[in-house]
Amino acid sequence: MAGAVNTVNREGDLLVGYNTDGAGLLVSLKEDLAFEPGGAKVLILGAGGAARGALAALGNGGAVSITVANRNREKANELIGHFAGVFNKIEFHSISLEVLSSAEHLQRFDLVINTTSVGMDNTSFNGFSGSSIKGVSASFYDMVYAPP
Fold this sequence. Notes:
Blueprint: E1 7-11, E2 14-18, H1 21-33, E3 41-45, H2 49-60, E4 65-69, H3 73-84, E5 91-95, H4 103-106, E6 111-114, E7 118-121, E8 139-142
Parallel strand pairs: 3-4, 3-6, 4-5, 6-8
Antiparallel strand pairs: 1-2
Helix pairs in contact: 1-2
């Protein structure tokens, strides 16, 4: 469903691909943040493979609104298009990463997930600072798999 593979197992003579990002995300959200996606409004930063896994899991978990923010808006729209027919009860949106500079915009979400490579090699989002999340009640989750 995710359209991305991060694990391959040999099953007899076949190689079978899986995406474990989504399942791992849901377990971690529950155990680490006491967060359940049912009824949630979610902002996903990025539109690559990890975002695909996260979106599939959140859709299956009952999120009601998923917004994808990406540098390339066309790629965000492609990701949304992949899932819109599968999850026809979810409200989908694409926006610019500039949303991170405004607490007013971030206030609309229950969960913000970083699925980009930002955070590796000491990189950061342009225009994002701790002050932009003051007063924001959303949970923030970072899927960076190789932090410095």
